[in-house]
Design a protein that fits this description.
- By secondary structure, the protein is α/β, with parallel strands linked by helices.
- The strands form three sheets. It has a six-stranded mixed beta sheet with strand order 1-2-11-8-9-10. A four-stranded parallel beta sheet has the order 6-4-3-7, sandwiched between helices. It has a two-stranded parallel ribbon with strand order 5-12.
- Helix 1 packs across helix 5 and helix 5 packs across helix 7.
- The chain is globular and about 50 Å long.
- The two termini are 36 Å apart.
């Protein structure tokens, strides 16, 4: 018999991740929080890494923008399991958060700078020789299986009565693995609610065609015959990007402040923009769910180990309003 693809992983996550009401922030609002899914470093990448690191070789290579959460999560969790981690980085707008994440990653991974995304791709391929390589955001068909499990987990929490049936589920859309996996898992679990995907990357960097291809690959991996990526209940919200990937928006910054007052830890690139969409959504007509994808674990131990940024890595962080057009990656 075929082995269940959803079991081919290294269990690392503390699950199910908690759900709770955020009624005091917005009427009819709930949160499912991935922030503390692992004590070393949390957030949405850990579910993907359970699958990506299963059977990985001694050397693991990935890529992302300078200050990528995925690069940091890979550095932390792969090195913990004894892998040697390297990553190609390309420029992105500077925020205090991006700088901190980039420096924390240098504690556990060798970060190689590329002048822009176009140059990063061939450099990544060449660095990946004789290594296990993970794509940007961990969003391969294998990594996305982690979020299929997450969608099934949410369906089970609804079934148990831990939260009401959500009318909509809000997630950031960066490399699409989180959104696609959640939508497939919810469907498999019998939870009929659209995933509202808040685009934080320009359309030309993550096309609907790329999203569909990844979705169909995951569906094929699961052996599902009666569903295609086009059938998934995903609503794309393309109105929150503002000045581009990693560039804060006024609405996102205001959402971070509102969230902070309620004890939420948000950042400007993904979760601030997503929470802004949640706060702007009509509260009438049923409960909404905000899926918190950002790690809430402190970076202090990693920053204590990390050297100051080299001039080459410093150059990866561009002043906001600069002309950088590096491809976005979480």
């Amino acid at each position: 018999p075929m082995r269940d693809p959803l079991e081919q992983r290294i269990p690392m996550c503390s699950v199910p991740t908690p759900v709770r009401s955020l009624d005091r922030v917005r009427r009819n609002l709930w949160i499912k929080d991935e922030g503390a899914i692992h004590p070393a470093y949390g957030g949405n990448k850990v579910r993907k890494l359970e699958f990506l690191l299963h059977g990985a070789g001694e050397r693991v290579v990935t890529l992302g923008a300078a200050g990528s959460h995925h690069v940091l999560a890979t550095a932390v969790h792969a090195s913990r399991l004894g892998h040697r981690v390297e990553a190609m980085a390309f420029p992105r707008p500077e925020t205090a958060h991006a700088r901190e994440v980039l420096r924390a990653a240098t504690a556990r991974a060798a970060i190689h700078p590329a002048p822009d995304f176009e140059a990063a791709m061939p450099a990544f391929e060449s660095l990946s020789r004789n290594a296990t390589s993970f794509p940007a955001g961990g969003s391969s068909a294998t990594g996305t299986l982690g979020w299929v499990r997450a969608g099934l987990e949410l369906a089970e929490q609804v079934r148990r009565g831990d939260l009401p049936v959500p009318r909509r589920v809000f997630c950031p859309l960066g490399t699409a693995g989180t959104v696609l996996g959640a939508a497939i898992g919810m469907r498999l679990g019998g939870l009929a609610a659209p995933v509202v995907a808040i685009r934080v990357v320009p359309a030309e960097w993550l096309t609907l065609e790329k999203i569909r291809e990844l979705g169909d690959e995951v569906i094929a991996r699961l052996g599902l015959r009666d569903v295609a990526a086009n059938d998934l209940d995903i609503a794309f919200d393309d109105d929150r990007l503002g000045g581009g990937y990693g560039v804060p928006t006024p609405e996102g910054v205001a959402a971070i402040e509102r969230g902070c007052a309620a004890g939420l830890d948000l950042e400007p690139t993904y979760t601030g923009k997503t929470f802004g969409a949640v706060l702007a959504a009509d509260p009438d007509g049923g409960p909404d769910l905000y899926w918190q994808t950002h790690s809430t674990m402190t970076l202090a131990p990693l920053l204590a180990e990390a050297p100051p940024l080299s001039p080459e890595l410093e150059a990866m962080l561009e002043p906001i309003g600069g002309g950088g057009d590096g491809e976005p990656v979480r």
